[in-house]
Amino acid sequence: MMETDKFPLAPPHNFIRSDREVSLAAAAEDELRRKKRRRRILSAAAFVVLLIVVVLVYALVVIRFKTPKFRIREAMITSSQISNFTNNNNSSSNLSMNLILEAEFTIKNRNFGRFKYESGSVLFAYKGFVLGQAFIDDGRVRPRSTKKVRAVAVLNSAGLGSQAKSELGRDIGAGVLSLTSYSELEGKIRVVRVIKRKKWPKLNCTMDFVIATRMIQNLNCL
User: Fold this and answer.
1) Does the keyword Transport apply (predicted)?
2) Residue 197: is its pLDDT beyond 70?
3) pLDDT in tens, 148-177
4) Neighbours of 217 (CB within 10 A)
5) Distance between CA atoms of 148 and 132, rounded to whole angstroms?
6) Among residues 16, 26, 72, 207, which one has the fewest Cβ atoms lying within 10 Å of its Cβ?
7) Distance between CA atoms of residues 71 and 44, nearest Å
8) Residue range 208-212: mean pLDDT, rounded
9) Which residues of 89-106 are buried (b: 16+ CB within 10 A; e: fewer)?
10) CA angle 152, 209, 98 (to 5 degrees)
11) Nearest CA to 160 among 93, 210, 207, 211?
12) Would you list the domain boundaries of the chain?
């Protein structure tokens, strides 16, 4: 009896994919990865937008932006020259007064954002007549902190009229000269680099200059 030839059977479900099928599968995988990446980007963008909205609502509803406080902390007269003055002479048109005043200013920021201010000046006056000014450079104040700034002002009586000089002469004769100072800084409070609010801190101070000791006393700022 003759033996029949035996041939191995092909395993079930085993087939060779064509190049086209491989390319289509790879393209489908790439598209799936792009969709996942796009969803992640959109989710991250939505989270950022939501975070910004929450911060804006919190800042506008909860946070109250406070105007920083601008004050004179201390002041002193380092040089004084007073000439052509006689106590018994009611006419003091020839009176000449020159003072050098050094002052330390403070800018107190009570907000949770930094305060950036522009340069400005502080005026010093006698009975409404400006004697001189001190210049303040621009700068920044960190959140919830106080910055100290020093400046020098040269005060003189050259711009006073005869009546003002007469009153100045009497006050100098009494030994005490009352001065006022005023300033307004322009700046912005910035929170999380998104929210900005303009603020104008004002300085309004009074002080007495004791001529004999060249001391500043009774310094008071509103």
Assistant:
1) no
2) yes
3) 999 999 999 998 888 888 899 899 989 999
4) 10
5) 21
6) 16
7) 46
8) 94
9) eeebeebebbbbbbbebb
10) 55
11) 93
12) 18-62, 69-221
